[in-house]
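Take a specimen:
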Amino acid sequence: MTKRRSSHWYGKLDKDGFIHRSWMKNQGWPDHVFDGRPIIGICNTWSELNPCNHGLRDLAEAVKRGVWEMGAFPVEFPVSSLGETQMKPTAMLFRNLLAMDVEEAIRAHGIDGVVLLGGCDKTTPGQLLGAASVDIPAIVVSSGPMLNGKYRGQDIGSGTDVWKFSEEVRAGKMTLKEFMAAESGMSRSAGVCMTMGTASTMSSLVEALGMCLPTNGALPAVDARRKALAHMTGRRIVEMVEEDLKPSDVLTKAAFENAILANAAVGGSTNAVVHLLALAGRVGVDLTLDDFEIGSEIPLLVNCMPSGQYLMEDFCYAGGIPAVLNELSDHLRKSQTVMGADISAYAEGAEVFSRDVIYAFDEPLKPAAGLRVLKGNLAPDGAIVKPSAATDALLEHEGPAFVFENIEDLKANIDRDDLPVTPETILVLKGCGPKGYPGMAEVGNMPIPAKLIKEGVRDMIRVSDARMSGTAYGTVILHVAPEAQAGGTLALVKTGDRIRVSASNGVLELLVDDAELAMRRAAWQPDPPRYSRGYAKMYVDHVTQANTGADLDFLVGKDTRIPDRESH
């Protein structure tokens, strides 16, 4: 029998082996589970403070059934859980902390492979970052989306319709009572946002990366088939241990390119950019912001909010990610997957059951809809925009800036009746990047000024170093790098400056001459640090910029530590 990683903990007939086995036996495990069979960790982000993931307890039990069925020994362990809707200042501040938690938990314990149970926006990428850094066999099971929201006989989507309803209240077209009545119908079951927000985007891209079994991306959280998927994942991870199939075998440049293509086709979240860049950095793949341009000519195929009409439940029934990969088959790169087969196997035999939801590649919902990378003196290291959720006419625009120096400035002034803005104005928000907020909060989709909302305006260009929710929409330019707090040109913009945007040419330009910008830079000072201790201080001191994934600088790259350290 091949000597396993777990044998360093449980296979020794000495004091160390005695201690490891004996303490585990206080849970009632018999001798034979320590007979050299694979030990499979189940890394669970279940939490009652993370409602998106509260169905993961049941999925963990299903995974265990599959592991036991294959003759291996499953052991469940907790890590921190990041509830996007519940955490302040932003769950993104803690993605890298979760990644550290996962990495060190795997490294410190005697497991041979790991199943990652996550779902809510930052749990999936955080777990992947941690597992990839240790590089033992790993596979993902996502929590799955909620059932469709319901309100007055209509389907409503989490996030997307919240923003719309909120703006209608501000415009006086929806009463507060009507707004509050939608609250209970929005979230009707366990699971993540049922729009193509960041959570469902990441579960879909995990499938396109080949890091989970097929259908993981869209099966509803409460669908019995997700438990069956978890069961089969428990079986597969044991086989992966036998095959020594690791994340580094799957997460190749080709796999990341497939994820970029899939993100364009599904109208996925802009947040996928920072997560894929960070993950590539962990496994040593040379992925840059410019690589996302390969998705710019891919059409939008999935008619899901916020880029379309339907919700994840409908997407599942229409064929899900396998059907999308089938539509993309002529463009996919060859890449290994956790199934031990090429990604093309995920699309094999896949059908589309509703062309209202999943369009054909040759007859798309929207052409050339992938994320666009913008550069220029306002974003020397890049910024991004999501054309599928934007107003076409605004993607080529020049106008005067109105600047909010920070989020507090925005909140205090956005509803002023005398705010000097028109629909042609470009709203600029500073101080919300990785270091500035800190954590790069989802505030980039700034509210439309109240005076314009009342005039019927529902979109205008907004530019910031922040992120936006994957459920949000609008002509929103995000992730400007370098950020304002790091001394990027964004910090120098003044109200009245003209800005030029050309998505087709990849341009984001501040129309101020170099001499004036040099004078402004000489007078600029960063804001004083908000934190003086703890993880938040460590984060601000070491976080990288958005264009490289907003990881911590000392976590980038492969780990050279020996994972099987002697104990006691």
Residues 68 and 74 are 7 Å apart (CA to CA). The first strand starts at residue 39 and ends at 44. The chain is about 35% helix and 15% strand. The mean pLDDT is 95.
